[in-house]
Design goal:
The complex is a heterodimer of chains A (118) and B (111).
Chain A (H helix, E strand, L loop, with lengths): L2 E3 L4 E5 L4 E3 L2 E3 L5 E8 L6 E7 L7 E2 L2 E6 L4 E6 L8 E9 L9 E3 L3 E6 L1
Parallel strand pairs in A: 2-12
Antiparallel strand pairs in A: 1-4, 3-9, 5-6, 5-10, 7-8, 8-9, 10-11, 10-12
Chain B lengths: L4 E3 L2 E4 L5 E6 L6 E8 L3 E9 L2 E5 L6 E5 L5 E5 L8 E8 L6 E2 L3 E5 L1
The chains are: A mainly beta (118), B mainly beta (111).
C-alpha cells in the first residue's frame, strides 16, 4: 500500500516571502503521479501542481514549484512571493496508474496548514 | 466548462437514518470518485466509478454504497447512519488521465 507523509502540521510565512512544504511517500511502483492540492477555508479542494513520476524535470506553475526527488521519494512544494490568498491547508497526494488494488485513487497526506502573515 | 457540482451542500441527519449525496462531474468526464474527510482520519478514498462500473473501493463498511448513471452523474448512499459518519464528502471527476477535479463537498452532520 502507498503512504504519504507530511511532517509539518502547521507553518507560517510572511507575505512576499518563500516557503517550502515537505512531503515524502512510499511505494514500490514506478508509474505514478504526485499532486499538491490546496484547501482554503471554503473547503474547496483546488489543484495546485502535478508531477509525473517518469519526468525528471520539476513541475512549475507560476509561483508554485516542486522539488521531486524520485530516489528519495520526496516531493516538496515551494511557494514564492507568498500571498494572503495562499493561506490554506495543503495536501500532498499520490496517484497510482495501473489496473489493480490501490489504483485510480488518490492517497493523501495529513496536510500542512499554511498561514500567510501580512 | 462548469466544474464538479455536489448537492446538497449541507445535510443534517439523525442516527439510523439513511442519506443520498449527488455528484455531477465536469462535462465529458467519465470517472467519478468519492472521498470522506474527517479531522481524525483525514481524506480517505471511498470508491471510484467509471462508465457505470465500480472499479475500486476503499476500506469502508457495506453501509456505504454508490452508483453511477449513464450521464456519469453519481450518487453515494449511506445507510443506518452513525455519529462517526459526520464528515465532509468530496466528489472528484477525471477525464481519461490522472488529474482529479473536486467539487465543493457535502457537509454531513449526524446527530
Amino acid at each position: 500500500a502507498q503512504t504519504v507523509t507530511q511532517s509539518q502540521p502547521e507553518m507560517s510565512v510572511q507575505e512576499a516571502e518563500t516557503v517550502t512544504l515537505s512531503c515524502t511517500y512510499d511505494t514500490s511502483e514506478n508509474n505514478y503521479y504526485l499532486f499538491w492540492y490546496k484547501q482554503p477555508p471554503s473547503r474547496q479542494m483546488i489543484l495546485v501542481i502535478r508531477q509525473e513520476a517518469y519526468k525528471q524535470q520539476n513541475a512549475t506553475e507560476n509561483r508554485f514549484s516542486v522539488n521531486f526527488q524520485k530516489a528519495a521519494k520526496s516531493f516538496s512544494l515551494k511557494i514564492s512571493d507568498s500571498q494572503l490568498g495562499d493561506t490554506a491547508m495543503y495536501f500532498c497526494a499520490f496517484f497510482l496508474v495501473y489496473s489493480g488494488a490501490g489504483s485510480y485513487q488518490l492517497t493523501f497526506g495529513k496536510g500542512t496548514k499554511l498561514s500567510v502573515i501580512p | 466548462k462548469a466544474g464538479v457540482t455536489q448537492t446538497p451542500r449541507y445535510l443534517i441527519k439523525t442516527r439510523g437514518q439513511q442519506v443520498t449525496l449527488s455528484c455531477s462531474p465536469i462535462s465529458g468526464h467519465r470517472s467519478v470518485s468519492w472521498y470522506q474527510q474527517t479531522p481524525g482520519q483525514g481524506l480517505q478514498f471511498l470508491f471510484e466509478y467509471f462508465s457505470e462500473t465500480q472499479r475500486n473501493k476503499g476500506n469502508f463498511p457495506g453501509r456505504f454504497s454508490g452508483r453511477q448513471f449513464s450521464n456519469s452523474r453519481s450518487e453515494m448512499n449511506v445507510s443506518t447512519l452513525e455519529l462517526g459518519d459526520s464528515a465532509l464528502y468530496l466528489c472528484a471527476s477525471r477525464l481519461a488521465g490522472d488529474t482529479q477535479y473536486f467539487g465543493p463537498g457535502t457537509r454531513l452532520t449526524v446527530l
